[in-house]
């Protein structure tokens, strides 16, 4: 009996040791959006950074909302996201030290080849959305409070389509707080909010032959990097409203003493310097440029 | 002829539990099947109730040979009924339990009611119809099970130890019911019992089953005994001039003062020092012969009469009895069976 | 600790304000789970009986397979069903993907093995004398099966409850086949996963509390029905 217990305990210890050893060395924790991860950009950048500095970066890819929340909870050392308004708020509330503009790409509105709402070739996203709403053509929304969703809500707001605002009351830190959610009014028949990542949203839109808004990177990946290829086309692109800037923010060490601010700054400086910016600009996905450096 | 069995064998793995060369059972009679625990009584009853099939051999029922396919067995099963040793009640009332056999036979409601009343009356449980069957005592359960079995008037009633684990009062009632239905309804009855009971009185025939084999009643280890003294809990039987056996008093009913006893040769043990079991009799004798028998050793001991015992090989090798030795034998009560018959 | 405290308060707030969205989510969850449990029971209970009571070559193998299927990950079911009902799949024209029906299909596949194995276990625990007694009293095969079913009813209830618990708590299939579309296929679990992804932990835990409360209420109801059935034996 004793021997059995000793055996079990030692197996347990070994398992713990093995699991623990994986996180040894200089490690920086970063929360980022799924778009940087799934576009493959990070796979190009991070090995170079590790080569230059010896720091490994542990990437936690989530929606922008959750990534920012990770920063607010001090779970990570740095966040790399794309929702400028919320990033500024994050810094203003003291969770981050400063927002550094890293790069931008753009959003596109994609939809079925048949284009029932007739938006092909438009560049004004607001007008395109208005036409989709008028045609009651199926539109699939991320609905997950991500950067892309934030952008989409912003575009709806400026499109002139009347919106419904849903409010949920919750309690945070003992105080009542409201969570708001905007979507076009009376849109049950054509607006689907699915609360999932970009890839899933594109798949959903393809399955149901509907419209959706995507970042260009994820779209290219699904269109050119996958067989069978996505059978949705870019129908609206290029307008100023569709620009998508990315920022990086180190988590404030005054708020969370355990964060590795120095290492975080080392990454930020590397990213903003010539080498990082060149890697970003040179990155090609299926032969297409995705990101444009903003720092130089 | 009701049943006719030829070369019937039932084998579980490497163990033969039933091996009957020939057995004929007559219609309208009462048979009792006796033998020690594990002799194969239940297996034989299940076979006769068409709930089990033989490994080999032939069974005829009412003159036609039984085919062991589900389709052919079903109509046969509806003509016989087996009452389990420890009957189990279906969830529900006593009434619904008895109703079961009628329901599956699609007997109309009005007739059902009449039959159930009769059956309950027959077993003296009229007042219990509405009771939850799970709340009955052991004896009551057996009586309800009997009513449940009799309600659809089977041709054959097979009972596995109907009087086991039942108090004296219930035992008598059950035996009386069996007697009545045999007389009045001409139901053929075959019931088993594992040792001495008053039941043998009502049997027309007695079958002795030992290790799956039907034994001849005039064979070895059968002795005529005379009751010489009745105590409160014990009863003393004289075997020969100087040899007596002390048995529990329920073994023989009060009015019986002479019977044949059968002693299972496999049940008898050499008595060792320090072994102080009280549920049996001790006898002394001299070993007169030893021979090998089917994996054991057959030992004949002269205790005034010749008593045969079969020792397992292991025990033989430990004790090494030899001819001429004085042996002390222990005969457990359960190895003794009363052979009272009316034949 | 704060999180838990906030969440309980939020859950109460959601209940008391009859939050329309919450009720819609709960309704979808219940509807889908009940449908899946009902259909799976219709297949699983007779299927379990059939396997328990028939002897055939390879029965052991079938049992082993069933036991293996208990560990079937929801993602695998999701993928397989997806490949059938997606627009490019064989059943594509039926337009099932991202509907409640799709979730039900996946969940039925998930819990049929659960129901079957539990039914087989429940039946094998039933005293053999019930069968013998039913047969000797003249029951046909199906009548005997009804007797066994009646005697094994608690095991059957337990199987159904376990199956229901499995589907209402399941997230993989609902997400992959339902698509978490708000107001259509958003269930409690997919909503929780979403709130977690959004970083709204308070709301996620509040939904979790709702789910647990609901499961508790349903089990209480089952228990109540059971004890009523018990006292009405006649």
Overall, the morphology of chain C is: globular
In the CATH hierarchy, what is the superfamily of chain C? Answer: MetI-like
User: Which regions of chain B are unreliable across 5 or more consecutive residues at pLDDT < 50?
Assistant: none
Q: Helices and strands of chain C: which structural class? A: mainly alpha
State the CATH topology of the largest domain in chain B: Rossmann fold
The greatest interface between two protein chains, and residues involved on each side, is: A-C, 37 and 37 residues
* Approximate shape of chain B: globular
Low-confidence stretches of chain C: none
Task: Summarize the main sheet of chain C.
Answer: none
Helix content of chain B: 10-25%
Summed over residues and divided by their number, the pLDDT of chain B gives a mean of 84
Structural class of the helices, strands and pairings of chain B?
Answer: alpha+beta
Please, what is the average pLDDT of chain C?
A: 89
Oligomer: heterotrimer
User: Could you describe the largest sheet of chain B, including whether it forms a barrel?
Assistant: 6 strands, mixed
Span from first to last CA of chain B? 18 Å
């Amino acid at each position: 009996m004793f021997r059995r217990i000793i055996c079990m305990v030692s197996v347990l210890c070994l398992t713990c040791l093995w699991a623990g050893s994986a996180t040894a060395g200089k490690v920086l924790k970063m929360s980022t959006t799924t778009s940087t991860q799934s576009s493959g950009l990070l796979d190009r950048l991070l090995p170079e950074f590790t080569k230059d500095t010896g720091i490994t970066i542990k990437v936690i890819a989530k929606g922008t909302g959750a990534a920012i929340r990770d920063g607010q909870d001090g779970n990570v050392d740095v966040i790399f996201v794309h929702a400028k308004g919320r990033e500024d708020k994050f810094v203003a509330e003291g969770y981050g030290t400063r927002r550094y503009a890293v790069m931008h790409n753009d959003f596109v509105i994609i939809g079925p080849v048949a284009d029932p709402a007739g938006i092909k070739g438009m560049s004004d996203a607001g007008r395109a959305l208005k036409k989709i709403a008028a045609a009651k053509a199926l539109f699939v929304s991320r609905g997950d409070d991500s950067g892309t969703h934030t952008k989409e809500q912003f575009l709806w707001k400026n499109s002139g389509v009347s919106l419904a605002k849903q409010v949920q009351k919750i309690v945070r830190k003992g105080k009542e707080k409201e969570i708001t959610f905007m979507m076009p009014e009376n849109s049950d028949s054509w607006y689907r909010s699915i609360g999932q990542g970009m890839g899933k949203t594109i798949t959903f839109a393809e399955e149901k032959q509907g419209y959706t808004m995507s970042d260009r990177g994820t779209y290219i990946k699904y269109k050119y990097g996958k067989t069978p290829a996505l059978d949705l086309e870019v129908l609206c692109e290029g307008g100023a409203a569709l620009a998508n800037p990315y920022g990086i923010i180190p988590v404030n060490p005054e708020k969370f003493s355990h964060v590795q601010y120095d290492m975080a700054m080392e990454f930020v400086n590397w990213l903003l310097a010539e080498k990082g910016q060149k890697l970003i600009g040179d990155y090609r996905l299926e032969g297409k440029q995705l990101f444009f450096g903003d720092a130089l | 002829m009701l049943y006719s069995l030829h070369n019937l064998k039932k084998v579980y793995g490497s163990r033969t539990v039933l091996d009957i060369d020939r057995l004929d059972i007559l219609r309208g009679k009462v048979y009792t099947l006796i033998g020690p625990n594990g002799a194969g009584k239940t297996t034989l009853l299940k076979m006769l109730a068409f709930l089990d099939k033989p490994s080999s051999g032939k069974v005829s029922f009412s003159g036609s040979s039984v085919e062991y396919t589900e389709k052919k067995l079903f109509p046969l099963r509806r003509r016989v009924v087996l009452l389990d040793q420890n009957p189990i009640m279906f969830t529900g009332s006593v009434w619904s339990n008895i109703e079961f056999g009628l329901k599956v036979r699609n007997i109309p409601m009005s007739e059902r009611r009449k039959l159930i009343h009769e059956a309950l009356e027959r077993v003296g449980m009229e007042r219990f119809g509405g009771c939850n069957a799970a709340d009955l005592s052991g004896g009551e359960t057996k009586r309800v099970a009997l009513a449940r079995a009799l309600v659809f008037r089977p041709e054959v009633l097979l009972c596995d130890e109907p009087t086991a684990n039942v108090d004296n009062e219930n035992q008598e009632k059950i035996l009386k019911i069996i007697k009545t239905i045999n007389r009045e309804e001409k139901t053929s009855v075959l019931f088993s019992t594992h040792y001495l009971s008053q039941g043998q009185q009502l049997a027309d025939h007695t079958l002795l089953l030992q290790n799956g084999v039907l034994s001849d009643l005039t064979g070895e280890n059968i002795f005529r005994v005379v009751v010489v003294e009745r105590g409160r809990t014990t009863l003393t039987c004289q075997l020969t001039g100087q040899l007596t056996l002390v048995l529990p008093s329920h073994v023989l009913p009060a009015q019986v003062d002479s019977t044949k006893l059968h002693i299972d040769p496999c049940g008898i043990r050499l008595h060792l020092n320090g072994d102080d079991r009280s549920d049996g009799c001790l006898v002394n004798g001299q070993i007169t012969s030893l021979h090998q028998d089917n994996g054991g050793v057959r030992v004949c001991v002269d205790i005034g009469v010749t008593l045969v015992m079969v020792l397992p090989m292991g025990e033989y090798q430990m004790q090494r009895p030899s001819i001429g030795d004085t042996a002390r034998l222990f005969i457990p009560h359960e190895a003794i069976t009363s052979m009272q018959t009316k034949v | 600790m704060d999180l838990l405290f906030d969440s309980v308060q939020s859950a109460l707030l959601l209940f008391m304000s009859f939050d329309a969205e919450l009720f819609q989510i709960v309704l979808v969850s219940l509807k889908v789970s009940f449908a899946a449990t009902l259909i799976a029971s219709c297949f699983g209970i007779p299927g379990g009986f059939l396997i328990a009571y028939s002897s055939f070559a390879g029965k052991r193998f079938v049992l082993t397979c069933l036991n293996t299927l208990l560990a079937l990950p929801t993602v695998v079911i999701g993928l397989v069903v997806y490949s059938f009902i997606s627009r490019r799949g064989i059943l594509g024209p039926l337009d099932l993907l991202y509907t409640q029906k799709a979730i039900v299909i996946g969940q039925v596949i998930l819990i049929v093995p659960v129901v079957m194995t539990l039914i087989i276990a429940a039946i094998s625990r039933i005293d053999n004398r019930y069968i013998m007694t039913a047969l000797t009293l003249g029951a046909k095969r199906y009548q005997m099966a009804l007797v066994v079913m009646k005697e094994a009813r608690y095991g059957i209830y337990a199987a159904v409850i376990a199956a229901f618990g499995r589907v209402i708590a399941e997230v993989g299939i609902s997400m992959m086949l339902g698509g978490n579309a708000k107001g259509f296929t958003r269930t409690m679990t997919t909503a929780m996963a979403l709130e977690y992804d959004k970083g709204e932990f308070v709301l996620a835990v509040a939904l979790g509390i709702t789910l647990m409360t609901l499961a508790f209420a349903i089990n209480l109801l089952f228990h109540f029905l059971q004890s009523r059935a018990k006292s009405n034996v006649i």
